[in-house]
Specification:
Elements: H1 2-27, E1 30-36, H2 44-51, H3 54-57, E2 60-66, H4 70-78, E3 84-87, H5 90-97, E4 104-111, E5 116-120, E6 136-138, H6 145-156, E7 166-168, H7 173-181, E8 187-191, H8 194-201, E9 205-209, H9 210-214, E10 220-225, H10 226-231, H11 233-252, H12 255-262, H13 271-283, H14 295-307, H15 317-320, H16 324-331
Parallel strand pairs: 1-2, 1-3, 6-7, 6-8
Antiparallel strand pairs: 3-10, 4-10, 5-8, 5-9
Helix pairs in contact: 2-11, 2-12, 11-16, 12-13
Main location: periplasm
Subcellular location: Periplasm
Organism: Cytobacillus horneckiae
Length: about 325
Protein backbone atom coordinates (compact mmCIF):
# COMPACT_ATOMS: atom_id res chain seq x y z
CA UNK A 1 0.00 0.00 0.00
CA UNK A 2 2.79 2.38 0.94
CA UNK A 3 4.60 1.56 -2.31
CA UNK A 4 1.43 2.28 -4.34
CA UNK A 5 0.96 5.57 -2.48
CA UNK A 6 4.53 6.66 -3.15
CA UNK A 7 4.18 5.90 -6.88
CA UNK A 8 0.84 7.73 -7.07
CA UNK A 9 2.24 10.73 -5.21
CA UNK A 10 5.27 10.82 -7.51
CA UNK A 11 3.06 10.75 -10.57
CA UNK A 12 0.97 13.55 -9.08
CA UNK A 13 4.06 15.69 -8.53
CA UNK A 14 5.26 15.09 -12.10
CA UNK A 15 1.83 16.04 -13.44
CA UNK A 16 1.57 19.32 -11.56
CA UNK A 17 5.11 20.22 -12.62
CA UNK A 18 4.57 19.39 -16.31
CA UNK A 19 1.29 21.28 -16.71
CA UNK A 20 2.71 24.73 -15.80
CA UNK A 21 5.76 24.12 -18.00
CA UNK A 22 3.58 23.17 -20.96
CA UNK A 23 1.29 26.10 -20.36
CA UNK A 24 4.25 28.42 -20.10
CA UNK A 25 5.59 27.18 -23.44
CA UNK A 26 2.21 27.73 -25.06
CA UNK A 27 1.94 31.25 -23.68
CA UNK A 28 5.42 32.11 -24.95
CA UNK A 29 4.38 31.56 -28.59
CA UNK A 30 3.49 34.84 -30.31
CA UNK A 31 1.26 34.88 -33.36
CA UNK A 32 2.32 37.13 -36.24
CA UNK A 33 0.17 37.60 -39.35
CA UNK A 34 2.10 38.36 -42.54
CA UNK A 35 0.49 39.65 -45.71
CA UNK A 36 2.67 39.12 -48.80
CA UNK A 37 1.87 41.24 -51.85
CA UNK A 38 2.13 38.19 -54.13
CA UNK A 39 3.40 34.61 -54.05
CA UNK A 40 6.81 34.61 -55.72
CA UNK A 41 10.13 32.75 -55.78
CA UNK A 42 11.47 36.29 -55.40
CA UNK A 43 10.57 35.88 -51.70
CA UNK A 44 12.47 32.62 -51.24
CA UNK A 45 14.15 33.64 -47.93
CA UNK A 46 10.72 34.17 -46.35
CA UNK A 47 9.60 30.64 -47.18
CA UNK A 48 12.95 29.28 -46.01
CA UNK A 49 12.43 31.07 -42.67
CA UNK A 50 9.14 29.19 -42.26
CA UNK A 51 10.25 25.81 -43.57
CA UNK A 52 13.57 25.70 -41.71
CA UNK A 53 11.88 26.61 -38.44
CA UNK A 54 13.64 29.94 -37.94
CA UNK A 55 10.41 31.69 -36.88
CA UNK A 56 9.55 28.76 -34.63
CA UNK A 57 12.98 28.97 -32.98
CA UNK A 58 12.11 32.56 -32.07
CA UNK A 59 8.78 31.54 -30.53
CA UNK A 60 6.73 32.96 -33.40
CA UNK A 61 3.66 31.32 -34.91
CA UNK A 62 3.40 32.67 -38.46
CA UNK A 63 0.22 32.98 -40.49
CA UNK A 64 1.04 33.83 -44.11
CA UNK A 65 -1.59 35.29 -46.44
CA UNK A 66 -1.14 36.39 -50.06
CA UNK A 67 -2.91 39.74 -50.28
CA UNK A 68 -2.55 40.18 -54.07
CA UNK A 69 -1.50 43.76 -54.77
CA UNK A 70 0.08 46.69 -52.96
CA UNK A 71 -3.22 48.47 -52.36
CA UNK A 72 -4.86 45.40 -50.84
CA UNK A 73 -1.78 44.70 -48.71
CA UNK A 74 -1.77 48.22 -47.33
CA UNK A 75 -5.50 48.10 -46.66
CA UNK A 76 -5.03 44.88 -44.69
CA UNK A 77 -2.21 46.44 -42.65
CA UNK A 78 -4.01 49.70 -41.96
CA UNK A 79 -7.20 47.89 -40.92
CA UNK A 80 -5.29 45.52 -38.59
CA UNK A 81 -6.06 42.52 -40.76
CA UNK A 82 -2.33 41.70 -40.68
CA UNK A 83 0.55 42.66 -38.40
CA UNK A 84 3.37 42.78 -40.95
CA UNK A 85 3.24 43.53 -44.68
CA UNK A 86 5.74 42.29 -47.25
CA UNK A 87 5.40 44.83 -50.03
CA UNK A 88 7.29 47.51 -51.93
CA UNK A 89 8.55 50.51 -49.94
CA UNK A 90 6.77 52.90 -52.29
CA UNK A 91 3.49 51.97 -50.55
CA UNK A 92 4.73 53.44 -47.25
CA UNK A 93 5.44 56.70 -49.09
CA UNK A 94 1.96 56.74 -50.62
CA UNK A 95 0.34 56.17 -47.21
CA UNK A 96 2.50 58.88 -45.62
CA UNK A 97 1.45 61.35 -48.32
CA UNK A 98 -2.17 60.81 -47.31
CA UNK A 99 -1.41 62.11 -43.83
CA UNK A 100 -1.44 58.86 -41.85
CA UNK A 101 -1.50 59.37 -38.08
CA UNK A 102 0.21 56.02 -37.55
CA UNK A 103 2.96 55.90 -40.20
CA UNK A 104 4.03 52.67 -41.88
CA UNK A 105 7.64 51.90 -40.98
CA UNK A 106 10.05 49.84 -43.10
CA UNK A 107 12.05 47.70 -40.66
CA UNK A 108 13.49 44.69 -42.53
CA UNK A 109 14.41 44.41 -46.21
CA UNK A 110 13.94 41.12 -48.07
CA UNK A 111 14.77 41.92 -51.71
CA UNK A 112 17.08 44.64 -52.99
CA UNK A 113 16.49 44.80 -56.76
CA UNK A 114 13.56 44.71 -59.12
CA UNK A 115 12.41 41.13 -59.63
CA UNK A 116 11.07 41.29 -63.18
CA UNK A 117 12.53 40.19 -66.50
CA UNK A 118 11.94 41.38 -70.04
CA UNK A 119 10.37 38.56 -72.03
CA UNK A 120 10.13 38.63 -75.83
CA UNK A 121 7.57 36.61 -77.75
CA UNK A 122 10.14 35.87 -80.44
CA UNK A 123 13.58 34.41 -79.77
CA UNK A 124 16.25 37.12 -80.12
CA UNK A 125 19.85 35.98 -80.39
CA UNK A 126 21.42 39.43 -80.29
CA UNK A 127 19.14 41.55 -78.10
CA UNK A 128 19.27 45.34 -78.15
CA UNK A 129 16.91 47.63 -76.25
CA UNK A 130 16.29 49.55 -79.49
CA UNK A 131 14.30 46.53 -80.69
CA UNK A 132 11.51 47.57 -78.33
CA UNK A 133 10.77 50.79 -80.22
CA UNK A 134 7.35 50.77 -81.91
CA UNK A 135 6.56 47.40 -80.29
CA UNK A 136 3.52 46.48 -78.21
CA UNK A 137 4.71 46.27 -74.61
CA UNK A 138 2.56 44.63 -71.94
CA UNK A 139 3.61 46.52 -68.83
CA UNK A 140 2.85 46.43 -65.13
CA UNK A 141 0.27 48.35 -63.10
CA UNK A 142 0.76 52.13 -63.09
CA UNK A 143 2.27 53.43 -59.84
CA UNK A 144 3.62 50.04 -58.76
CA UNK A 145 7.31 49.38 -58.32
CA UNK A 146 7.60 46.94 -61.27
CA UNK A 147 6.18 49.54 -63.65
CA UNK A 148 8.34 52.35 -62.28
CA UNK A 149 11.55 50.28 -62.34
CA UNK A 150 10.63 49.12 -65.84
CA UNK A 151 10.15 52.66 -67.12
CA UNK A 152 13.40 53.72 -65.45
CA UNK A 153 15.28 50.99 -67.32
CA UNK A 154 13.64 51.86 -70.62
CA UNK A 155 14.49 55.56 -70.29
CA UNK A 156 18.05 54.62 -69.34
CA UNK A 157 18.30 53.06 -72.81
CA UNK A 158 16.78 56.05 -74.58
CA UNK A 159 13.24 54.70 -74.85
CA UNK A 160 10.26 56.85 -73.86
CA UNK A 161 7.73 54.21 -72.79
CA UNK A 162 4.78 56.49 -73.52
CA UNK A 163 6.01 57.79 -76.89
CA UNK A 164 8.14 55.00 -78.35
CA UNK A 165 5.98 52.02 -77.39
CA UNK A 166 2.42 50.86 -77.69
CA UNK A 167 2.24 50.56 -73.90
CA UNK A 168 -0.53 48.49 -72.32
CA UNK A 169 -1.08 49.18 -68.61
CA UNK A 170 -4.76 48.41 -68.09
CA UNK A 171 -4.32 44.70 -67.29
CA UNK A 172 -4.51 43.57 -63.66
CA UNK A 173 -1.30 42.12 -62.20
CA UNK A 174 -2.75 38.60 -61.98
CA UNK A 175 -3.83 38.69 -65.64
CA UNK A 176 -0.65 40.02 -67.26
CA UNK A 177 0.93 36.61 -67.82
CA UNK A 178 -2.30 35.02 -69.16
CA UNK A 179 -2.78 38.01 -71.49
CA UNK A 180 0.69 37.56 -72.97
CA UNK A 181 0.20 33.81 -73.20
CA UNK A 182 -3.02 34.33 -75.16
CA UNK A 183 -1.27 36.57 -77.70
CA UNK A 184 -1.28 40.14 -76.33
CA UNK A 185 1.98 42.05 -76.76
CA UNK A 186 5.38 41.47 -78.30
CA UNK A 187 7.23 42.09 -75.04
CA UNK A 188 6.15 41.68 -71.42
CA UNK A 189 7.58 42.34 -67.96
CA UNK A 190 7.31 39.22 -65.78
CA UNK A 191 8.39 37.84 -62.41
CA UNK A 192 9.79 34.39 -61.86
CA UNK A 193 8.83 31.58 -62.09
CA UNK A 194 6.45 32.70 -64.86
CA UNK A 195 9.28 34.04 -67.04
CA UNK A 196 11.15 30.71 -66.90
CA UNK A 197 7.96 28.68 -67.38
CA UNK A 198 7.14 30.68 -70.51
CA UNK A 199 10.67 30.15 -71.78
CA UNK A 200 10.48 26.39 -71.15
CA UNK A 201 7.11 26.17 -72.91
CA UNK A 202 8.21 28.30 -75.86
CA UNK A 203 5.71 31.06 -75.10
CA UNK A 204 8.43 33.68 -74.64
CA UNK A 205 12.15 34.20 -74.17
CA UNK A 206 13.98 36.10 -71.39
CA UNK A 207 16.16 38.76 -73.00
CA UNK A 208 17.00 41.17 -70.15
CA UNK A 209 16.68 41.80 -66.40
CA UNK A 210 15.05 44.93 -65.03
CA UNK A 211 16.69 44.14 -61.69
CA UNK A 212 20.14 44.53 -63.20
CA UNK A 213 19.14 47.70 -65.05
CA UNK A 214 17.49 49.59 -62.17
CA UNK A 215 20.14 48.94 -59.49
CA UNK A 216 19.67 48.40 -55.75
CA UNK A 217 16.50 49.62 -54.11
CA UNK A 218 14.16 48.52 -51.29
CA UNK A 219 11.95 46.55 -53.62
CA UNK A 220 10.21 44.30 -51.10
CA UNK A 221 10.36 45.14 -47.40
CA UNK A 222 8.70 44.07 -44.18
CA UNK A 223 6.78 46.96 -42.69
CA UNK A 224 4.37 47.56 -39.85
CA UNK A 225 2.51 50.39 -38.23
CA UNK A 226 4.73 52.53 -36.03
CA UNK A 227 2.44 51.75 -33.09
CA UNK A 228 2.81 47.97 -33.60
CA UNK A 229 6.61 48.18 -33.56
CA UNK A 230 6.58 50.32 -30.42
CA UNK A 231 4.11 48.05 -28.64
CA UNK A 232 5.84 44.81 -29.73
CA UNK A 233 9.61 45.51 -29.82
CA UNK A 234 10.59 41.95 -28.83
CA UNK A 235 8.34 40.43 -31.48
CA UNK A 236 9.77 42.73 -34.15
CA UNK A 237 13.31 41.75 -33.13
CA UNK A 238 12.51 38.02 -33.13
CA UNK A 239 10.85 38.37 -36.52
CA UNK A 240 13.85 40.18 -37.98
CA UNK A 241 16.26 37.66 -36.48
CA UNK A 242 14.39 34.81 -38.19
CA UNK A 243 14.49 36.62 -41.54
CA UNK A 244 18.22 37.33 -41.14
CA UNK A 245 18.89 33.64 -40.43
CA UNK A 246 16.99 32.75 -43.60
CA UNK A 247 18.83 35.34 -45.68
CA UNK A 248 22.15 33.92 -44.54
CA UNK A 249 20.93 30.37 -45.20
CA UNK A 250 19.90 31.16 -48.78
CA UNK A 251 23.16 33.00 -49.39
CA UNK A 252 25.27 30.06 -48.17
CA UNK A 253 23.28 27.25 -49.78
CA UNK A 254 22.88 26.24 -53.40
CA UNK A 255 19.95 27.19 -55.59
CA UNK A 256 19.02 23.51 -55.65
CA UNK A 257 18.86 23.32 -51.84
CA UNK A 258 16.78 26.50 -51.66
CA UNK A 259 14.44 25.23 -54.38
CA UNK A 260 13.90 21.98 -52.48
CA UNK A 261 13.17 23.93 -49.27
CA UNK A 262 10.50 26.15 -50.84
CA UNK A 263 8.98 23.74 -53.36
CA UNK A 264 5.84 23.30 -51.25
CA UNK A 265 4.88 26.92 -51.90
CA UNK A 266 4.81 26.37 -55.66
CA UNK A 267 2.86 23.15 -56.16
CA UNK A 268 2.29 23.65 -59.88
CA UNK A 269 5.91 24.53 -60.69
CA UNK A 270 8.57 21.95 -61.57
CA UNK A 271 11.56 21.79 -59.25
CA UNK A 272 13.99 22.58 -62.08
CA UNK A 273 12.09 25.81 -62.83
CA UNK A 274 12.20 26.83 -59.17
CA UNK A 275 15.92 26.13 -59.05
CA UNK A 276 16.50 28.12 -62.25
CA UNK A 277 14.53 31.06 -60.86
CA UNK A 278 16.41 31.03 -57.54
CA UNK A 279 19.72 30.93 -59.40
CA UNK A 280 18.72 33.92 -61.56
CA UNK A 281 17.80 35.97 -58.50
CA UNK A 282 20.93 34.92 -56.59
CA UNK A 283 23.25 35.65 -59.50
CA UNK A 284 21.99 39.22 -59.87
CA UNK A 285 21.95 39.91 -56.11
CA UNK A 286 18.19 40.26 -55.77
CA UNK A 287 17.99 38.52 -52.38
CA UNK A 288 19.21 40.85 -49.64
CA UNK A 289 21.79 39.10 -47.47
CA UNK A 290 20.82 41.16 -44.42
CA UNK A 291 17.65 43.05 -43.41
CA UNK A 292 19.11 46.58 -43.43
CA UNK A 293 17.55 49.07 -45.85
CA UNK A 294 20.29 51.66 -46.41
CA UNK A 295 19.90 55.31 -47.32
CA UNK A 296 21.35 54.97 -50.82
CA UNK A 297 18.70 52.39 -51.70
CA UNK A 298 15.98 54.66 -50.26
CA UNK A 299 17.14 57.59 -52.39
CA UNK A 300 17.33 55.40 -55.50
CA UNK A 301 13.73 54.33 -54.86
CA UNK A 302 12.58 57.94 -54.68
CA UNK A 303 14.56 58.87 -57.80
CA UNK A 304 12.84 56.09 -59.74
CA UNK A 305 9.42 57.15 -58.43
CA UNK A 306 10.18 60.77 -59.32
CA UNK A 307 11.31 59.78 -62.83
CA UNK A 308 7.99 57.96 -63.29
CA UNK A 309 6.02 60.99 -62.03
CA UNK A 310 4.66 58.99 -59.07
CA UNK A 311 6.53 60.54 -56.11
CA UNK A 312 4.05 62.56 -54.00
CA UNK A 313 6.88 64.22 -52.06
CA UNK A 314 10.39 63.37 -50.90
CA UNK A 315 10.45 61.67 -47.53
CA UNK A 316 13.50 61.71 -45.27
CA UNK A 317 15.07 58.30 -44.78
CA UNK A 318 14.69 58.44 -40.98
CA UNK A 319 10.96 59.22 -41.22
CA UNK A 320 9.83 55.88 -42.63
CA UNK A 321 12.85 53.59 -42.14
CA UNK A 322 13.91 51.98 -38.85
CA UNK A 323 17.21 50.08 -39.08
CA UNK A 324 17.81 49.78 -35.34
CA UNK A 325 15.99 46.45 -35.09
CA UNK A 326 18.06 44.90 -37.89
CA UNK A 327 21.27 46.43 -36.52
CA UNK A 328 20.62 44.94 -33.06
CA UNK A 329 20.05 41.51 -34.60
CA UNK A 330 23.20 41.68 -36.70
CA UNK A 331 25.32 42.88 -33.78
CA UNK A 332 24.51 39.80 -31.68
Amino acid sequence: MKKWFKISFALFLITILIIPIAACGKDDVTKVRIGEVTRSIFYAPQYVAIEKGFFEEEGLDITLTTTAGGDKTMTALLSDGIDVALVGSETSIYVNAQGANDPIINFAQLTQTDGTFLVSREKIDDFSWDLLKDSTFLGQRKGGMPQMAGEFALKKHGIDPHADLNLIQNVDFANIAPAFSSGTGEFVQLFEPTASVFEKEGIGHIVASFGVESGNLPYTVYMSKDSYLKENPETAEKFTRAIYKAQQWVDSHSAEETAEAIQGYFDNTDLDIIEMSVERYKSQGSFATNPILDQEEWENLQNIMDEAGELPQRIDYETLVNTSIAENVMDE
